[in-house]
Design a protein that fits this description.
single chain; alpha/beta; 6-stranded mixed sheet
């Protein structure tokens, strides 16, 4: 028996050996198919601020060239090894010599120059552009492109030995008929010091080399730049060319997006010519007409005896930016607008529609839009006696509707069923809805409506230029803050306000009170309590509208940041997830913005369905985030994200939709911006390694 048992065991062992001999080569073959050997290419990176380094710590470096090459790794069997050089201590000629000697394989940011062609190979494709530009101090609010082109007296510094700088400046001045004062310096550093010390107004430099101290005023010339290697390294340049060609085909907008990320900045400076400054000094205060009872856009506040509202705050900013002196004048009605202009009662009117036909008929010129109004539809949920549709006279978007210039009356007509529905701007609708419980506010088909400033056409044309400069100096962030403070922080309304808005009902209540003192008093208290509850509900409703992204129904960027900051102030540990729809731009461009919005909306629905108990937000475009202070286990995070992906793939089978997800589990982080930076870095790693994946990192 023992011999038979031993024989059986030997046969089993022999079978396992034979089976393994067949399986192992197969596994080895599969392993060969799954992995490739990547060639290592050493790259010289110049650590210039704003160009190739944008570091939050010494351990993490990024920048235009760095990020571009990381992208190329997706399209080529290479990996890049970076050698960083300080441009102050290492001259570019020394680096090029090391390239020629073979100590460095590749260097980027090189312009084609006949003097350096010998011994080098350029990439077939450029990967960006550099502009020779006029640079000014970033805090010089009196200097922008308009001031230069108006031939204001300016001093421009350049390097004396640079023939190219001088030629470009001469061409620019000849083309624009400019006569600046030219100041020569021995070096770029000396020129920059002179600019920062206010010895000159402008200097010639590169748009890619601007820093926190400098801003681009105008560009003189644009030149493409390339990668360069030694002439004997044809294999290196061949790999680079193939990868760049593939990238240009699959993502032709990549270099544009990189330029926007690293170099593009909004120019919000308000710069006036000397002639305009003199005009403002000698100009009397301008009378600005205010449309009456136009809350929360513009109105006169009896308690403070001041004009207030969104448009008033914006006009005050324009006055502050330009020095223009203004007085506010409350108009009786828009019917007298032409006479008010002709008799000098007002010089301009605030908050008129951005419609040139209306402006021409009423003798005023239009500035650029200063604010956009969301247009909403209001309807009666309970009763409607007819099918009439009205529209606020301030909008007058559709001639088929009944035009009503009294928005309070229009709301009342909808409430009583005299109008089936009406169209009004969203800010005014939120205010008036506080008085009418049976009126619902619904999004409309109309796009946002723009309001501008109307300047009497007999005023000095230079005042219009000054107003435009003042508008240019207002950022979108400032506009959002003004809207938020005026709409959200509105006052609660007293019983006297209700009496004024509803006189007939108020008289009835007073008569009943005189007959039945105790009973009506109790009823009155009950109704007052109900009205306050409704006001609180409406305020809460609008606060929700201001906090949530209306398309995806998750928190907007500002609210998400605030709520997460509050959480990490209390508990400096948790996890944050960053999600990005891969190739969403292609889907959006191919199928249209309506389909793109539908996809984003469905994404938000599934985000709330899966992560409803946590903080979810849309940071912009197709970037979403989730914050969880109670989930820090990697397996649990992996499972819940996979569940979300499965739900999205089940619902959205019209596209080959993939999603990149980066997750950070953190401890001892107290600042949202630092947390955002860390999770964005992880998400970038996912996208750089081919997208459609989940990566978790503990910090």
């Amino acid at each position: 028996m023992k011999i038979k048992k031993i024989r059986t065991n030997l046969l089993i062992l022999l079978a396992c050996v034979i089976l393994t001999s067949f399986i192992m080569p197969t596994l080895a073959e599969k392993s060969k198919l799954s992995y490739i050997e990547r060639a290592t290419i050493t790259v010289a990176i110049l650590k210039e601020e704003g160009v190739n380094i944008d570091a939050l710590s010494d351990d993490y470096l990024t920048g235009y060239t760095h990020e571009y090459l990381t992208k190329l790794e997706q399209f080529s069997p290479v990996q890049f090894e970076y050698i960083y050089y300080d441009p102050i201590n290492e001259q570019i000629l020394d680096i090029l010599e090391k390239v020629k000697e073979g100590k460095i394989d590749l260097v980027g940011g090189m312009l084609k120059n006949n003097g350096f062609d010998d011994g080098y190979l350029y990439s077939d494709f450029s990967y960006g552009y550099v502009s020779t530009s006029l640079l000014a101090r970033s805090d010089n609010n009196d200097m922008n492109e308009r001031v230069v082109l108006m031939n204001e007296p300016v001093k421009i510094g350049l390097i004396a030995s640079s023939k190219s700088q001088r030629q470009l400046l001469e061409n620019y001045c000849e083309e624009n008929k400019l006569t600046p004062t030219i100041v020569e310096f021995d070096s770029y550093v000396e020129t920059e010091c002179a600019l920062l010390n206010n010895e000159i107004d402008l200097m010639i430099g590169r748009d890619t080399a601007k820093s926190a101290d400098l801003k681009v005023v105008d560009n003189l010339a644009e030149s493409p730049y390339y990668f360069v290697t030694a002439s004997n390294k044809t294999n290196v340049i061949s790999l680079i060319n193939d990868a760049m060609k593939e990238l240009n085909i699959l993502d032709p907008e990549f270099t544009n997006s990189l330029y926007e990320k690293y170099y593009s900045t909004a120019n919000l400076s308000t710069a006036l010519t000397s002639e305009e400054k003199t005009l403002i000094t000698n100009l009397r205060a301008m009378n600005v007409g205010v449309i009456p009872n136009n809350y929360p856009l513009e109105y006169y506040d009896e308690s403070s005896k001041q004009f207030k509202g969104i448009l008033i705050d914006l006009m005050n900013l324009i006055s502050e930016n330009t020095g223009l002196k203004i007085n506010y004048v409350q108009m009786d009605s828009l019917d007298n607008l032409t006479d008010d202009f002709e008799f000098g009662v007002i010089d301009m009117i605030l908050g008129v529609p951005n419609e040139y036909s209306r402006a021409i008929n009423r003798n005023y010129l239009l500035t650029s839009p200063i604010v956009e109004l969301p247009i909403v539809r209001i309807s009666n949920s309970y009763v409607s006696r007819n099918n009439q549709i009205a529209m606020s006279g301030y909008l007058n978007l559709n001639s088929d509707y009944i035009v009503n210039y009294d928005d309070q009356d229009m709301f009342k007509m909808v409430s009583q069923g005299n109008y089936k529905e009406a169209y009004i701007d969203g800010y005014r609708a939120q205010y008036l809805s506080s008085y009418y419980r049976n009126v619902s506010i619904i999004p409309s088909i109309y796009e946002n409506y723009q309001l501008a400033i109307g300047l009497h056409n007999k005023q000095d044309y230079r005042i219009m230029n000054i107003l435009e400069q003042g508008i240019r100096g207002i950022s979108q962030h400032q506009i959002d803050e003004i809207i938020y403070s005026n709409v959200i922080d509105k006052e609660k309304y007293s019983l006297m306000d209700y009496f004024k808005q509803n006189p007939a009902e108020s008289v009835g209540i007073i008569l009943v009170v005189s007959v039945m003192m105790v009973g009506v008093l109790s009823l009155f208290l009950f109704k007052a309590n109900q009205m306050n509850k409704e006001l609180d509900k409406e305020k809460e409703k609008y606060e929700m509208l201001s906090q949530y992204d209306q398309l995806t129904k998750v928190y907007n960027q500002q609210t998400f940041k605030t709520k997460v900051q509050e959480c990490i102030d209390r508990k400096s540990s948790g996890s944050i997830i960053s999600m990005d729809l891969d190739n969403f731009k292609i889907i959006n461009d191919t199928n249209g913005h309506f389909e793109g919005d539908r996809l984003l909306s469905e994404f938000g629905n599934q985000l709330n369905h899966t992560f409803g108990q946590y903080i979810t937000g849309r940071l912009g475009g197709d970037e979403f985030m989730v914050y969880m202070d109670s989930v820090q286990d990697s397996d649990e995070l992996q499972n819940i994200c996979q569940k979300f992906l499965d739900n999205m793939h089940t619902i959205e089978n019209n596209y080959s939709l993939t999603i990149s997800i980066g997750i950070v589990v953190f401890h001892q982080i107290k600042d949202f911006d630092e947390l955002y930076y860390q999770v964005d870095r992880i998400l970038y790693d996912v996208k750089a390694s081919g997208r459609n994946n989940i990566k978790i990192e503990k910090i």
